[in-house]
Each structure stands twice: as C-alpha cells, then as structure tokens.
Amino acid sequence: MAKVITIxxxxxxxxxxxxxxxxxxxxxxxxxxxxxxxxxxGLRNLDLIMGVExxxxxxxxxxxxxxxxxxxxxxRDKRVDKLYIFPTSQTRDKDALKKDGVLRVMDELRNxxxxxxxxxxxxxxxxxxxxxxxxxxxxxxxxxxVSSVRDSDRILGMLASKSRRAERGEAPxxxxxxxxxxxxxxxxxxxxxxxxxxxxxxxxxxxxxxxESESVLKASNTGTPVILDQDSAAGRAYEDAVARFMGEQRxxxxxxxxxxxxxxxxxxxx
Amino acid sequence: xxxxxxxxxxxxxxxxxxxPADPEFESRLAEHVSRNPGFFxxxxxxxxxxxxxxxxxxxxxxxxxxxxxxQYLIPIGIQNGNATQVRAAANAGMASFAAAGPPRQxxxxxxxxxxxxxxxxxxxxxxxxGRTRVVTQPVRSGTQIYAKGGDVxxxxxxxxxxxxxxxxxxxxxxxxxxxxIAGASGDREARIFVGKLEAELLSVAGHYLVSExxxxxLRGQPVQVALVEDKLVVTRT
Lengths: 270, 237
What we know:
The complex is a heterodimer of chains A (270) and B (237). Chain A has 270 residues and is of the alpha/beta class. Helices cover 42% and strands 16% of the residues of chain A. In chain A, strands 3-4-2-5-1-6-7-8 form an 8-stranded mixed beta sheet, with helices on both faces. Chain A is globular and about 65 Å long. Chain A starts with a strand and ends with a helix. The relative contact order of chain A is 0.17. Chain B has 237 residues and is of the alpha/beta class. Classes of the chains: A alpha/beta (270), B alpha/beta (237). At the A-B interface, α7 of A face loops of B.
C-alpha cells in the first residue's frame, strides 16, 4: 500500500512543483517506486519541470473519464529508475477532477506504487482540496514571507478538516514544513522572517530549508529536477529533506549567513 | 424511550420581552441581531415575559411572532408567564418553559490592578448549559470555533485570521493572534483570558477593540479582558 504525500502551500509560486519534482526523484533514487501526479488542471507545469512535456499522450483527466487506462498515461522517467510522471490536462480545468474518478485512480495507484506525490495547485478551492484529500502526509511549502506563512496556516487548517482522514476520523495527516527560497543573509539583516519566526507561527515539524538558488531556474528551464544537479545547494538541501522524511537525522545546511572573507567576496559566487 | 420519541437537551437564547408594543423593543432587537446576523439567523428563542402585562391573547402572540420573524428569529416558547399568558401562548403554538435559575450576581467592575478571575455566574437557560469546549490543536487561519452556550478553552495558539467565539468566557493559553469574541449572545459578564496578546480583535457582548486600540505595553503579555460600562478593559494578569 502506497503512502500519499501531498505537496501544497496555499500561496502560489513558492516552489510546490519544484519540490514535488525533487521529492519524487529523491524517493525513487532511494529505490522506492514513485509516481508524481499533477493536480493543477489547466495550468499544468509538472511535465515541464520533469522534462517530459514532449511525451505526453494521455493525462489524469483522460484516465478519470475512462478515455485511457493508467498505463497509457503514466510516463516513465528516463533518468531515474522507478520514477513515473502522471501529467494532467492543459485544455480542461479543475471541475474535471471528479471525486469518484480521482478516488478510483488513487486506489489503483496505491496498489502499484510505494509513494504517490500529489503536486497541488495554489489556492484553497476544488483543485487544492482534491489534491490534499487523499494525503497520508503533507509537505507545506512556505517562503519566509508573511503572505506565504498566512496562506500556509490556512492550508494547514484545511488539511485538518477537509482531508479524507479528517472526514473519517482517522489518524491525522502528517504535517511537514518545508521552507523554500531562504536567504540567511537577508534574515541576518532583518529583512526576512527567520526559521524560528515561521515555526513559531505555524508550529509544524520542519523537514527542510531550501536556500534561494539560481540553480532552480536552470533546473526548470532544462526540465531536470534540481535534486539531480550535483553542484546546487538547493539540490543538496532537497536531498537532506528527503532523507529526513525517511527518518534520517541530518543537520540543517545552508541556514547560516556566510562570513565572507576578502578573497571570497572578490571571487566568490552566490 | 423508543426510537420514535427520545430525550434531548438544547441550548437556546432567551429574549427579554417587557413591552412588545414598544417600538424601542424591535429597534433594540434589530440592532442586537445586526451585530451578528449569521448567528441569529433562524435561531430558536424563548421569550422571558416576566412582568409583562400584555400577551394575554393569541392575537398578541401572533403579532410578536411576526415581529420576531422580521429579525429571522423563531420563537419556540415562553418563560415566566402567568396562567392566562401560558394558555394564550399554547394556543398560538408556543410552549412554556420552567423558570430560569437564580439571577446573576451583580459584580463590581474590575479595578486597574489585576484581580483574581471571579467565578462566573452563567445565566442558567431552561435547558442544559453547554460544557466547556476544549481545543488542543492550533486554531488555524480561516477557522472559526464557536462554543455555543458555554466557555471555550484553547491550549495552543490562535492564528491571524482565525476566530474563537463563545457565549461564555474565552480562555486561550497560547498566543492569540486572531480574534476572540466572548459573550457572543450578549453576556456582559463574559471575559477573555489570553496567554500572549497579539490579537487582531477582542470583543465582549458586542463591544469590541481592534488591535490598534490595544495599549502597546500590553502586547505580548498575558491579559484578561472584561466589559466595564460599555468599554473593554484589558488588564495584565
């Protein structure tokens, strides 16, 4: 039986799809059969970030409507064994996510995979609620910025009340906080919320801190999940986050402002 | 008890009716309802008619029912009526409830120095009063908790954009960053107790204080909030 992990945030543009791609890749690299599903019907991005946009034939909505079966829609990743991508429709919208259809698809996926990553759209409407409905665990992606924190709090409220587990009175969805686009220098200057500021407001276990990094844009543009970029600090941080999710202890890296020496300042890179 | 008929307890609002013909009555009622229309919409109410000389005929009850319906209230019965009134009410389709419990003690308003929180005399409704509702998880943004007929106890933080509402007292052991509304049905003796004050809004019995109006030296402090002669007073605990 698979574990369903929903990557959600409330706020848009904080790094959900980047995180979904990195997390799914990280889990598959560790030997777990993993599928990452795009729930952002009409505004799909997961296929681009995963680099499979030229291989999409059938999508999530096709399978829900019975136009295709799961095997026809699932795309196998060429770089990482055991990693599968389930793209969504670009021509339809969130209304196409019929509850019973999604349930049927999720049940089928649970039988074949170890992990199911649901890449949620932004917001708190039908698309986002459908994405979190089946969650066993949720990673709440948050920027260290007041609007993002407020929206993450809202989505935490939704997880506690609108998930399938909440409806059935089962054990609650496991909640994990992932702080993204973190800049220790700006935190030190007092321009950005610190990790403890965010944790005080959200009170959710922290699974990782992903530093602001130019490599994320590069990753999107090349369709390569950032966790595969060996030179990227963000990639390393995602690796740490996946390790923590699997129960390993890892110290938080990239959270301290660098003391720049003269030479470093002259020749150093971001 | 069979499955056809069984016992139930409900908490119901009581409306004091001294002179239903007085236009002031309807306007005061309307004003009260307008402060929280969602809460009062189609709410069942019992009419306390102690000392009321009118309401001896079915016609008068029908007029009163129409008045209450204009405010979207549903009268289900009366309380403290004499024999004639009870009969007229029954003919008009309203039940008679047992008299209320002992009257609430008049408390002197709290002084500037902190005083120990007085044990509240809750207005005893004709049916079972609510138990204290206990909330152990953080109250997230957008969430609304309403403890009808009783107090609420929150053991975690209340996020900005969240609302904790009670007909009785509101106790928040964590930080209050959202709204706390006590005495939601009009209980002026209700109070708010906060572990760490960072509230967006505080309200007791319809009187409110926004964040800006809270004295800055009290921000971040443990406080209690009480209504003193139509003004909210916030004191450090």
